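Help wanted!
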Amino acid sequence: MTNVLLSNSLAYPILSVVLLTPLAGAACCFFIRNQTVLKLWGLLVTLMTAALSLPLWTAFDRSTAAYQFVEVLDWFPTIGLSYQLGVDGISVLLVLLTTLIMPLCILCSWKYIEHRLAEFIFAILVMETAMIGVFVSLNTVLFYIFWEAMLIPMYLLIAVWGGPRKDYAAIKFFLYTFVASIFFLVAIIALRVKVGTFFIPDLMAASYSFGWQAWIFAGCALAFAVKIPMFPFHTWLPAAHVEAPTAGSVILASILLKMGGYGFLRFCLPMAPQATEFFAPFLIVLSLVGILYGGYLALGQSDIKKLIAYSSVGHMGFVTLGIFLLNMEGLKGAMLQMINHGITTGALFICIGIIYERTHSRELQDNAALGMFMPVYVTFLGIFSLSSLAFPGTNSFVGEFLVLMGAFRSQPLVGAIAIPGAILAAAYMLRMLQKMVWDKSDGHAHAHSHGEAALEGLHGHEGEEGGHGDEHDHGHGHERKLWDLDLREMACLAFLVVFVFWIGLHPQPVLSVMDASISHLLEQVAAGQGALGAGTGH
Amino acid sequence: MTSSMLSPLALLHPWLVHPATLFILGALLMPVFCRAKLKNAALVIIPLLAFFQINALPETFGQVSWMGFDLVFGKVDKLTYVFLHVFTLMAVIGSLFALKVEDWGQHTAAWLYVAGSLGVTLAGDYLTLFVFWELMAVASTFLVWYRKKKKSMEAGFRYLLVHMLGGLVLLAGIFLKYRATGGDLSFVQILPSDAGLADYLIMIGFMLNAAVPPIHAWLPDAYPEATVTGAVFMCAFTTKTAVYVLARAFPGFEALAILGAIMTLYGVAYAVIENDARRILAYHIVSQVGYMVCGVGIGTAMALNGAVAHAYAHILYKALLFMGAGAVLEMTGRSKLNELGGLYGKMPLTLIFTVIGGIAISGFPLTSGFVSKSMIIAAAGEAHRTGLLLMLSLAAVGTFLSVGIKLPYYIWYGGKSEPSVPHAQDPPGCMLWAMAMAAFMCFFLGVYPEFLYRMLPFDVNYEPYTAYHLSETLQLLGFTGLGFYLMVKKLGPEPKMNLDLDWFYRKGSLGFMAFAKGPLSRANDWVGEVYRTIGLAWTMVTARALSWFDREGIDYVVDGSAKGVLDAGDRLRQAQTGKIQHYIGAAAILLFGIMIVVILL
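Answered by r_m:
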């Protein structure tokens, strides 16, 4: 298969540059003493990486499904291992998502991280390289190296800068993902033995018997299902999210979870099409359960971060649902939903981080009735909440719309079951929003003269009932200071708002990037199933 | 009316042709208006602009291709025009009524809500319709929440969930339609003989917004809890937008005729026994919208004309009534009839306006209700639907009883000579002017029905002021008045809660939350710990066993060499500088060394 590769149209190896810039930046971290300079350095490196990745968007040839910007270098010729990078319409979007989200991770940690700053910046930058590496690798060994390499900085992010139960959460996260990826390793080795190559396009082109496919699929799917996470492999996620620092949660939600979806699209569908067809109904059922179960649990949470974490289970359920519908709308919707979830949920975690820095609590009760003091903040929160519940005009609407359309096109019953999930999303997001913006039933507010404000009497008071209110002051709660967003926080969120509406109102540019690749992927799946009809391969 | 004349707004930007854009822009700029002290001017000018703008709409505009769908943001015919006319007029009145509200958020929510309604009315395809439909649902929820009472928070929440559910049923219908028609989503009439599952799902979605029982409970649940000015907007737009879409897509569906007739009685029955002024009015919306739904269901030209005319008239008098009850609530803080009374000397103008609304809704001759309601009843007769005719007439009696007489009686008299709220007075000027405008329209339409009839979608061959109609109506109303006089004791308001179908979802949502919070969460935590209780426990046992082996078996061998390691460690320790960059340097050198060895091999 030679026509699957398109040599780099740029004069320099852009993928290697984007891949290695953060790593090089990370290496310099330990030579900087000044804390502010260190943060600025981290920001500069991530911004530079983002800027360097922009040609991937502008120079990307949208008319072909071939891998582009390809780089091939011999590495270990003795075992047939090369350094092969390339992106297609599926991975290029995820690379861009990664490079654009990372500067925000530095920005949102500006004040939150106080100790071991150099190590923190180092971990974030190494993380960036590893994540980009996963998306640009064209051979299984590179893919696996980056895949595992991600675990270490992520583990550290949780275990060093995390909350009170950080050790527990970090180990849980590590064990779950690590154990699952061992099966993936086995699958990779099996493929090497069978086909004699690590090169992903060649692995896709080879054909396997159904039995082989089933085993390959199972091995890969387990690793990806844990990462996404699919029900019932999701329990590590809430723990990790709750304990991780804001930056960790953002990385986890925005990018790490996408690796699972990406893995399905890159490995399971093209390499094991018959097995995909066979397992699809089961995975659709699991997706539906995830959508409803995640949404339902999100409704029951009083910890905001946990709420968003469970909502991720639901949202990613839409992703896997879209993938295993195996039609054009479903796959495009799933891809778009991954991008959208990265934007919206990332933004929500940044929002939670912002409020946590002020109230030092993530309980809904402690963060009620912020509307009066932080109007800018609640405006952003409102926009992202609406986006999260897939309100028309926002990005998530387009994604969920496509997935649901795909569902109704092939299996209306599946669509009908998924729809209550969307209602649940409205329920838990608006419950949170309403409480955080208004809910006066738990406390009363007093404005300070300097534009700052304090909220008193936060715990366990029922507000005035009925009637027209005479205000009682229950002031024996703790006092806290609230101030609205500063420029840095606003910049973070405003940047993401642009994407919420851009994709929501005009998704064509994003969809056109993935169009050819997704069509090609569907052809691969269909061809594989055709082989099933002709016989059972070899 | 749909002339090719271009408005100056269209020259400014093609999108400004759409009246919803004006409201959306106005809503978004509202904080700026408030800060720049332009709020009052904006609240008057922008709705007026929209009101005139609708005369300059081209027949089709705003065609956009979006993800392979052909969206049509504007499609105008006579049916659209009459709804646009009353919606924008209502926006003028409602914004004027809300002029004194300082909180910009309420104005923003109200205008986004209006924009949603206008967007639905102009939509030429189901996707555009859906988008504006959802905008309406969310924006109007904020009109409830802005009351900022615990009860409004809860009611708003239920309201939103019900509407989200309705919206998604609608969306499911749209998807199925897409599948059935192969991509054609244009919003046009459906014949009862062609209707499939998709169409019925869409119809249910529409019916939810029209508050057709048994999916009506959200309306009397939420409207009484909304803000004073918000309720005025809400009573006008949601249900009437639903009537519009039903009239556009589903005229002549038998189910609508029957359900509509049931609605008229159902709403009235609850209105008669209710105590809260705004709850009474909310049930009357159900009843009055019943006339319209019934008219749509009958489906003849006259019935459709009647439904549309009644929607037009209803928006104005119902808004007037909500303004009256709202003014009382605003000035006294009360809305329960048994807590009110004796206010005739304190709020005389409000009394007059409310009574005008009351007689208009009851269909008194010379008011708007007479020329529109009688048209639907006559259409039922003309179509030989005697059963419907009877139900609609009966509902008219109940309407007069509860709104025409009971509501004003208990608020302003109630047998009390002393005012129940001593400090009460008529509301500020802007509210009175808004009421005056609506009251004027109630009479104007009643006296010059031609003004309304000219706008109707079909030619009108109906004369409301015949001797027969007049005498019939007056007799009915006269006997009702007599009945009230005789039974005034029995009809006295009681401070109780009447049970309606909303009980199910009030309780249902509680149970739902309890389950989500309690057992399900616990089960999930337990499952999450399984790997710890089972997996880890086993691992720990084996790990301990292994560590024993490690200690007693391997260590014995290793200990011998350990001494050497310790010595080496001592030497290494002396080489340590404590600087992390040195370690990294060393590690890097080591790594390079290994790589060189590997590559050379």
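OP: Thanks! One thing I noticed: Residues 442-479, 533-538 of chain A have pLDDT under 50 and may be disordered.
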